[in-house]
């Protein structure tokens, strides 16, 4: 049977080459996406600042809720516990006296209270200090130095008003002992003197974080923290670590006690590379690529097998049993996909590295992110490729395999659309799924983008399942339009109408290409547009926006309020806060908001109530809906450091895009956000306020309100998004070309027949051109339909108005690009085939 | 297209092959045709006979302008098609020649009716529908206009191919083993239709076959062996042809 499979391999080179190529690319994409995801999941923090500590006690780093449900069933009481947690962006602190208590435990040499806080440090000439790969600078009390340990290279330990920086920061900023640094934390701006330069053993700094030490006596006042963020325990030599850990656990109470590789989790969340963002990005990458790859591969395999139905029927007439044919198809497809996986897997590794490099450049993943080649992922991708090919081949061949031999021969010439019931059942299911998603999932929420993608994927499955039927409906008018005039147009119309399956096989990748990419592009343009517009509308009442590199301490803002001539102030401090529903904590983009003055400097489009004040907060319409809050409700909110507060809902606003779902009192946020610096202050003023601000705070930037630039994070996401569209466009484009080539290669005989009845080569080229126009036209009609449904639903949910084209330029570009690609892809293989011989039929052994 | 308005010589040769030689690459240098000269009279039915590899199909391809001879001349209705290049060759072919092949060579995507009109459409002339209907009646296809070739039997498909060839009123129809894929009685029916076309319509038919019974329907049989014409028979019968075939093969 294997020999037979190999024998047939030679016969249908075109179909095999196409299937091989599609399988190769599919395996490469699956492997690449899988490697990226696996690398993110297994990414280890690059450095352990607590390397010298045996045990580390950490403050809260997440909010964990437990939901207990009791069910009574047949007299038995079942107790279910569900524990859900959400990571904090800040660090919770520990009791001040904990270090002292831990120090008394036998076997403990010292217990060091570690205070870690983000700092903004500048040289007097305005250069911002950043570590390698733009790593953040983290401040500590000098007592923390032995935890790593950092040792002084030059100078001495910091006294009041002094700092020690690590050697890497010193080199980068050109700072030496005796130099000055301007250090900004949420407690204020200080000019401090460098008293020394320190470094961990054998290197200039820890990877991914710069260190700045202040005097222990000043740590609390500079950081603004109520207690240490962690306590590191250094053990005396010869201490039993297991016993020590147990003793520390007893003393630490509810705080988590970490040893070994877990110790790094006690560090400040912002000090470690963040792999949560990349996780969702790569999840999306693998979602899109996996869908496209499987979708395209299934189509290609089906097309390839269908081209050989006649041969399969002949095998049946010459005595092959259905079982043998099934085995033949199975062996052959697994063999083909297995062979394709050999170059496919290495290509996937390359793909992962290229994408990772690009994402690192864009800042969408941490600079420390590396792709680790995971053999299991590669094998899984290869197996997935083989499985898809196998299943596709078996489904495509099922009819030819099952029916009686003579019937098989008769049917191949004029195969009816098989499995109609199956097709319709599949289509009904996928359509229902898509409709359910579009109707029931709130598309204006954080899931909107992903769900719109899933629903367009489902609609594409509908199109694929109903392919021949839909194509028959769409082709009729399109082919009459394109086919008007001339024998070739007439013939193209007849040929495309006669074989809707072949047209569908080629058109469906075009539908995929247009629908998936248009949805991604248009939705992101839509969100960008709306976000930019809301930003403009929000800031419109302010005369000017004040910003500072790194941010402004709250104290500065309070002095603005008091300035003569200032009539309105709106200060915002971006942070994240966690709210809970049904035992599930979830974090949301949040702003600390201070509004002062007699005139408003910020327009959130309040729909009800007022802006936040003492003990109250405001929330977006979306989250208010989702959580079922009403004005006056008392809501439990966890701030960035895990501090739990109860605030009363005072207002509901509409303009949340690019702002956040929650608006909390600024002083509360500033106290509990790790950075705690105000990002922007909107001002309304009369007179010479700008001059006075410039005089008092030379570092501040005051710009007339013209819609400030979107936050950096959004730009990263935008770049990552564009890269994903590029990957998706590239793959779907290859799929389109490949399918056209396979479909055309099988028409050698048909072209020869046409030449025999008197068609010139030119006429055949025109015929193929017209057919491509019809196919592309039909594909685009369906693609436009799918995109219109999804984008329409998304835009209605997001902006309240139905928009289908969103951005005329983008839309026309996509449409033109896909059409041009389809026409070229349709024409080129035919030209190659027709150029080879003037009459290809004559040497085909007939 | 110097000869485009030349009328075929009345009752003279429609196709003249003069001293044609053809060697296929890779054939070990053996000549498929070795100095063949033969003429086919208008309104005649000629069978080209010979064992496998004798060059009979090559002769048909060269005579019909489907293939180019290495040397020698081919005159189609007085026009030397040796000097024509594509697409003039295709145009000459589709104006003057019809084909009937063993494997029918119909377009599965088109209905019977559209298949029959296809050559005229490709030639850019207004199809003669009345004549096409008449041809369909003569070959017994009336009522099958909207069927697809895939729905027809082999004999019916060959009838469609014959109707297609006749519908454009060619000066000559080349038939390459037209009964090769058909059973005995169906084959006889098709041969009867070919004969009918010659007698009733005045078509010229050149038929390549290896079947003596088929050759017996022709007015004349030409025998090929090793790329040369060895002999010919007028008014062949199956017995005479079979005897001659034995002689040629041995």
Q: Care to describe what's here?
A:
Chain A is built from 24 helices and 24 strands. In chain A, strands 5, 6, 7, 8, 9, 10, 11 and 12 form an eight-stranded mixed β-sheet that branches. Chain A has a six-stranded mixed barrel with strand order 16-17-22-19-21-20. Helix content of chain A is 52%, strand content 19%. In chain A, helix 14 crosses helix 16 and helix 16 packs antiparallel against helix 24 (808-836). The model of chain A is unreliable at 840-846 (pLDDT under 50). In chain B, the strands form two sheets. A six-stranded mixed β-sheet of chain B has the order 6-7-8-3-9-10, with helices on both faces. A four-stranded antiparallel β-sheet of chain B has the order 2-1-4-5, with helices on one face. With 250 residues, chain B is of the alpha/beta class. The longest helix of chain B has 18 residues, at 184-201. In chain B, a hairpin with a 7-residue loop joins strand 1 (13-23) and strand 2. Classes of the chains: A alpha+beta (846), B alpha/beta (250). The A-B interface holds A 410, 413-414, 487, 490-491, 494-495, 498-499, 750, 752-763, 838-839, 841-842, 846 and B 61, 66-67, 86-87, 90-91, 93-94, 99, 101-103, 105-110, 114, 118-119, 121-124, 148-151, 164.
């Amino acid at each position: 049977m294997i020999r037979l499979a190999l024998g047939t391999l030679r016969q249908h080179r075109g179909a095999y080459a196409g299937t091989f190529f599609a399988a190769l690319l599919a395996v490469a994409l699956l492997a690449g996406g899988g490697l990226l995801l696996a690398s993110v999941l297994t990414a280890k923090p690059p450095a352990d600042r607590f390397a010298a500590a045996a045990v580390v006690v950490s403050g809260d780093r997440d909010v964990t809720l437990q939901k207990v449900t009791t069910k009574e069933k047949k007299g038995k009481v079942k107790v279910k516990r569900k524990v859900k947690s959400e990571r904090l962006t800040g660090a919770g602190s520990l009791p001040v006296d904990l270090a002292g208590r831990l120090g008394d435990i036998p076997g403990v040499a010292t217990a060091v209270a570690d205070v870690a806080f983000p700092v903004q440090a500048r040289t007097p000439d305005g250069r911002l200090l950043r570590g390698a790969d733009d790593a953040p600078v983290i401040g500590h009390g000098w007592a923390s130095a032995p935890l790593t340990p950092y040792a002084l290279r030059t100078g001495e330990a910091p006294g009041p008003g002094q700092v020690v920086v690590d050697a890497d920061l010193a080199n980068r900023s050109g700072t030496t002992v005796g130099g000055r640094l301007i250090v900004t934390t949420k407690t204020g701006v200080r000019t401090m003197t460098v008293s020394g330069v320190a470094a961990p053993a054998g290197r200039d700094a820890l990877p991914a974080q710069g260190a700045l030490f202040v005097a222990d006596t000043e740590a609390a006042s500079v950081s603004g923290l109520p207690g240490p963020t962690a306590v590191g325990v250094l053990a005396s030599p010869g201490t039993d670590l297991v016993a020590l850990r147990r003793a520390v656990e007893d003393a630490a109470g509810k705080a988590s006690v970490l040893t070994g590789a877990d110790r790094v989790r006690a560090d400040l969340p912002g000090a470690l590379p963040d792999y949560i963002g990349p996780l969702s990005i790569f999840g999306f990458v693998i979602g899109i690529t996996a869908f496209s790859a499987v979708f395209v591969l299934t189509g290609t395999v089906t097309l390839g097998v269908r081209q050989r139905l006649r041969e399969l029927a002949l095998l049946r007439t010459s005595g092959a049993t259905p079982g043998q044919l099934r085995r033949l198809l199975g062996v052959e497809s697994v063999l083909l996909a297995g062979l394709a996986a050999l170059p496919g897997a290495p290509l996937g590794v390359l793909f992962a590295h290229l994408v990772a490099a690009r994402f690192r450049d864009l800042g969408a993943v941490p600079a420390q992110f590396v792709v680790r080649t995971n053999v299991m992922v590669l094998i899984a991708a290869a197996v997935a490729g083989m499985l898809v090919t196998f299943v596709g081949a078996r489904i495509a061949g099922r009819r030819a395999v099952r029916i009686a031999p003579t019937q098989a021969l008769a049917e191949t010439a004029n195969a009816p659309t098989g499995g109609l019931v199956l097709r319709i059942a599949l289509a009904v299911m996928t359509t229902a799924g898509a409709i359910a998603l579009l109707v029931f999932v709130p598309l204006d929420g954080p899931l909107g983008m992903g769900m719109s993608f899933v629903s367009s994927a489902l609609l594409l499955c509908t199109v694929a399942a109903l392919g021949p039927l839909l194509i028959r409906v769409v082709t009729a008018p399109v082919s009459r339009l394109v086919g008007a005039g001339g024998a070739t147009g007439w013939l193209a119309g007849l040929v495309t109408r006669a074989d809707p399956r072949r047209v569908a096989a080629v058109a469906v990748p075009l539908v995929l290409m247009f629908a998936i990419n248009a949805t991604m592009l248009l939705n992101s343009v839509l969100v960008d547009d709306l976000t930019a517009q809301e930003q403009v509308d929000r800031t419109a009442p302010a005369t000017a926006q004040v910003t500072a590199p790194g941010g402004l301490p709250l104290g500065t803002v309070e002095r603005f309020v008091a300035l003569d001539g200032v009539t309105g102030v709106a200060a915002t401090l971006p942070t994240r806060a966690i709210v809970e529903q049904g035992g599930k904590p979830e974090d949301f983009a949040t702003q600390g908001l201070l509004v002062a003055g007699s005139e408003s400097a910020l327009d959130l489009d309040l729909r009800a109530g007022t802006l936040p004040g003492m003990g109250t907060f405001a929330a977006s319409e979306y989250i208010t809906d989702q959580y079922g809050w009403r004005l006056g409700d008392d809501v439990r909110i966890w701030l960035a450091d895990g501090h739990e507060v109860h605030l009363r809902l005072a207002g509901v606003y509409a303009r949340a895009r690019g702002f956040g779902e929650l608006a909390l009192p600024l002083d509360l946020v500033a106290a509990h956000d790790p950075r705690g610096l105000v990002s922007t202050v909107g001002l309304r003023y009369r007179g010479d306020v700008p001059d006075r601000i410039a005089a008092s705070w030379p570092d501040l930037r005051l710009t007339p309100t013209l819609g400030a630039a979107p936050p950096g994070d959004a730009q990263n996401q935008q770049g990552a998004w564009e890269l994903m569209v590029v990957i998706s466009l590239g793959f779907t484009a290859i799929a389109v070309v490949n399918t056209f080539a396979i479909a055309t290669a099988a028409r050698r005989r048909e072209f020869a027949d046409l030449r025999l009845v008197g068609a010139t080569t030119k006429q055949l080229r025109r015929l193929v051109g017209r057919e491509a126009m019809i196919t592309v036209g039909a594909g685009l009609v369906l693609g436009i339909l799918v995109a219109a449904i999804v984008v329409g639903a998304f835009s209605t949910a997001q902006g309240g108005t139905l928009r289908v084209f969103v951005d005329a330029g983008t839309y026309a570009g996509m449409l033109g690009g896909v059409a041009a690609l389809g026409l070229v892809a349709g024409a080129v293989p035919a030209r190659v085939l027709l150029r080879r011989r003037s009459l290809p039929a004559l040497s085909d052994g007939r | 297209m110097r000869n485009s308005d030349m009328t075929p010589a009345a009752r003279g040769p429609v196709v003249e092959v003069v001293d044609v030689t053809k060697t296929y690459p890779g054939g070990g240098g053996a000549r498929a045709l070795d100095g063949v000269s033969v003429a086919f009279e208008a309104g005649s039915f000629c069978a080209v006979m010979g064992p496998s590899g004798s060059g009979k199909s090559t002769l048909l391809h060269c005579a019909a302008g489907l293939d180019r001879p290495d040397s020698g001349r081919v005159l189609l209705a007085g026009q030397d098609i040796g000097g024509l290049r594509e697409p003039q060759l295709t145009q000459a072919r589709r104006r003057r020649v019809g084909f009937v092949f063993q494997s029918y060579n119909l377009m599965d995507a088109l209905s019977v009716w559209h298949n029959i009109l296809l050559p005229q459409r490709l030639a850019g002339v207004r199809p003669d529908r009345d004549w096409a209907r008449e041809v369909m009646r003569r070959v017994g296809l009336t009522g099958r206009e909207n069927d697809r070739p895939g729905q027809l039997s082999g004999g019916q498909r060959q009838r469609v191919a014959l109707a297609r060839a006749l519908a454009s009123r060619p000066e000559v129809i080349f038939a390459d083993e037209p009964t090769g894929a058909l059973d005995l009685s169906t084959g006889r029916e098709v041969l009867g239709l070919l004969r009918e076309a010659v007698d009733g319509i005045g078509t010229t038919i050149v038929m390549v076959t290896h079947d003596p019974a088929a050759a017996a329907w022709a007015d004349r049989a030409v025998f090929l062996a090793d790329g040369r014409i060895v002999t010919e028979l007028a008014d062949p019968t199956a017995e005479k042809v079979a005897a001659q075939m034995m002689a040629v093969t041995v």
